[in-house]
Amino acid sequence: MFSAYLIHLLILICIYLILSLALQLAIGYTGLVNFGHIAFFGVGAYTSALLVLNGWPFWAGFLSAGILSALFGFLISWPTNKFKGDYLALATMGFSFVVYAVLLNWTDLTNGPLGIPGIPKPQILGFSFIDNSDFLVLAIGITIISYLIIKRITVSQFGKVLEAIRDDELAVKVLGKDTLKMKSYALAISAFFAGIAGSLYAHYLTYIDPSSFAIMELVPVLLIVIVGGLASLEGTILGTFLIILIPEALRFVGFSSSIVGPMRQILYALILLLILIYKPRGFYGKVDLE
Amino acid sequence: MFLQILINSLIAGAIYGLVASGFSLIYSTNKFVHFAHGATVAFSGYMLYFFFGMLGLNFGFSVILAILFAGALGILMNILVYKQLRSRRAGNAILLIASFGILILVESLILLFFGADVKTIDYIAVSRGLSFYSAIITPLQIVIIIVSVILFILLMLLMKKTRLGKAMRAVSDNKDVAEIVGISAESIYNWSFFVGSLIAGVAGVLIGLEQNLEPTMGTSLIIKGFIAAIIGGIGSAPGAILGAFLLGFAENFGIWYLPSGYKDAIAFVLLFIFLLFRPQGILGKKK
Amino acid sequence: MLKLKNLKKHFGGVKAVDNCSFEIGKGMITALIGPNGAGKSTVFNLVSGIINPDDGQIFLNGTDIANLPPETIARLGVSRLFQQSRLFKNLTVKENLLLAFDGEDTKFLKNFLGLNKVNKEKEEIIEHWLKKVELERFKNHIAGDLSYGQKRLIEIIRAIINPHSFLMLDEPVAGVNPKLRKEIAAMLLELKKSGETILLIEHDMDFTFGVADKIIVMAKGTVIAEGQPKQIRENKDVLEAYFGE
């Protein structure tokens, strides 16, 4: 019999895996250092929560979360088209902050810092996923489908063009390909999956507030992608398990709960710095971060 | 009303300028975004609290210690992290990500040792504002503006007139040529972190006195400082200061019309506009 | 085929290209030579659309392409080799070449539904070219791992596979060993025989005089001489440009 704690962890792993695979597509495969990724997560969570609370069926809220996030992803690729590396990171980080500010201040829509409580658990065709073990099955299903879709993209010729853009965008243009279009597709797809991860998150926790979507929440996701290795989906899976599970070990060392929070952050920061210095390709990375 | 906003803008500009100028110095010499600069500012404020508020040392002495410790932290960050990455030919994106790592590490350590609750430094006890025509300004705020102006002048003198300043500009222009004429780039990097972080130390002390201390203050400050540096012209100390005052004005006049919660969003919209249309900033040169 | 008219491009105070005009005939190999800083690479960048001219026109088969983006110009038939290596270093040699064939790989739905599989024809063309340059055993190697000369060959092949009516090669043999140089020269002559139009920039004079039908000499941003290799060799202005007064 699985303990409730283990089920909770596995659900978190599913959500973060989808979120990280999405970021991997943007950074590892297309070379887009998108620090605005958490904004897509937040847009997805709030969209799904608000729609379902307004009577929409779960699957509609779920898909809308993905689609609306994808639209944002598509739109943001245009003004940031000429930005590279750190400039792109900082511009997209700015986008993250604007979204955060909107979530915090547009109280009529989002209820501001008070957040949105009472988000219903998913209900599909009359079946309610109220038990966490049922939710886990749903989450695993969605995660597997997401993985298969993203894998499919990376293996196809379309995925190879994305990788070529990462390696040398100008050379891709000179081969007659519209790189702006390709990058906007990449960001849109990446945002789509971040959005549906957000939907799962909202309907699992049943309560969301802007603090879950602040810029610092990007750190574990970025860490997963880097630790697992750029341009490796298998690495992302491994990275997710490691990054979600390792801090949980802290609970068993006997730290009080007020210390677990900062200890977790310290652990993440140390792992990040050590990996960047000593093993920048992570476990299965095939590519260097520029 | 207008005068109050003007004064608030000046104070905000002075504070952002203190953060932005040190950051800009480090950026222009090292050529990457040292986001962890905000952590140095926070660290300095907490050090003042530690020496003065917790250990009860003399105030002036505590201030000096806090500023020196900040300078030392800057050098430590460079030696322990950035130097290692540079020797492995890390690109700017990696250095930026690493700087986030350092920022989180320092902030979390502060959180661990000092707790999440807001701390105050009780030196200049709740200052009664002085009336200046129809506006109110406190003595501390006047001090902030004066100190920042003095510091800016000192910084400009350093960069233009001293050997160190010239060496930093040489490394900033062309590191390889600078090394050929005998300047050790490594040592200049350390110096830039030291001086930049000292300025951050001053910022931390003043901000710690003016606003209260909380562990994530560094993040918000460096974001504003960074945006100010971009607007004014990153890589140029006068640019950073100009950008800081512009940002201060834009924010304070902006929230005259918008709900105050959107203050931070104003900064980001400005960032976006500049990155799109004039990425080199107002005073910057096109790369 | 290609006609430049009064082309001008200044970078601040530097007159990289200034009142530059010349014509490239079809089915010929034309070489663009000149001392460093003459503006040759700038002309290449202007023609392939990587930068836009301040003034002047660039006609490709009658159409003015002066301000079009690089991907559009590429689709109008211009294929380009860069001076510095621009291979996709994390992809295999085969993957590098597959990207050159057509634009089908940019269609998301088609690729996702599995309707753009790598077909036999493309594989055969790749085999053919790799065999020609004796690199077939590197087909599945990561491109970044190849030696400089090998990379150069792959990039030339990539430019050739890319559908084109006009081939621009910027220093195809720079830094390449003499044996390979001869092979590349032979390849270019073969391409010309099959009707290709080639414009190249080169500093290796033996190589250039060995393949070019016509030579255009640039200095200080403009054309100072053009003609057949024999004429150019004896041209006073050209010698002056290279060796000074």
Descriptive notes:
The complex is a heterotrimer of chains A (290), B (287) and C (245). By secondary structure, chain A is mainly α. Helix content of chain A is 72%, strand content 1%. Chain A has one domain. Chain B is mainly alpha-helical. Chain B has a domain of 194 residues. Chain B has eleven helices and two strands; from the N terminus they run H-H-H-H-E-E-H-H-H-H-H-H-H. A two-stranded antiparallel ribbon of chain B has the order 1-2. In chain B, helix 1 runs parallel beside helix 5, helix 2 packs across helix 8 and helix 3 runs antiparallel to helix 4. Chain B is globular, with a radius of gyration of 19 Å. Chain C is built from ten helices and ten strands. In chain C, the strands form two sheets. In chain C, strands 6-7-8-3-9-10 form a six-stranded mixed sheet, sandwiched between helices. Chain C has a four-stranded antiparallel sheet with strand order 2-1-4-5, covered by helices on one side. Chains in contact: A-B, A-C.
What is shown here, in short?
The complex is a heterotrimer of chains A (290), B (287) and C (245). Chain A is mostly helical.
> Main β-sheet of chain C, in a few words?
6 strands, mixed
Strand content of chain A: under 5%
The CATH superfamily name of the largest domain in chain C is: P-loop containing nucleotide triphosphate hydrolases
Q: Tally the helices of chain A.
A: 11
Rounded radius of gyration of chain C (Å): 19 Å
Element string of chain A (H = helix, E = strand): HHHHHEEHHHHHH
Question: Architecture of the largest domain in chain C in CATH?
Answer: 3-Layer(aba) Sandwich
**DSSP, total strands of chain C:** 10
Mean pLDDT score of chain A, rounded?
92
The strand line-up of the biggest sheet of chain C is 6-7-8-3-9-10
SSE order of chain C, as H and E? EEEHEEHEHHHHEHEHEEHH
Strand content of chain C: 15-25%
The largest sheet of chain A is: 2 strands, antiparallel
Spans of chain A of at least 5 consecutive residues whose pLDDT stays below 50 are: none
CATH topology-level fold name of the largest domain in chain C:
Rossmann fold
Shape of chain A: globular
Principal-axes geometry of chain C comes out as globular
Cα(first) to Cα(last) distance of chain A is 46 Å
Count of the separate structural domains of chain A: 1
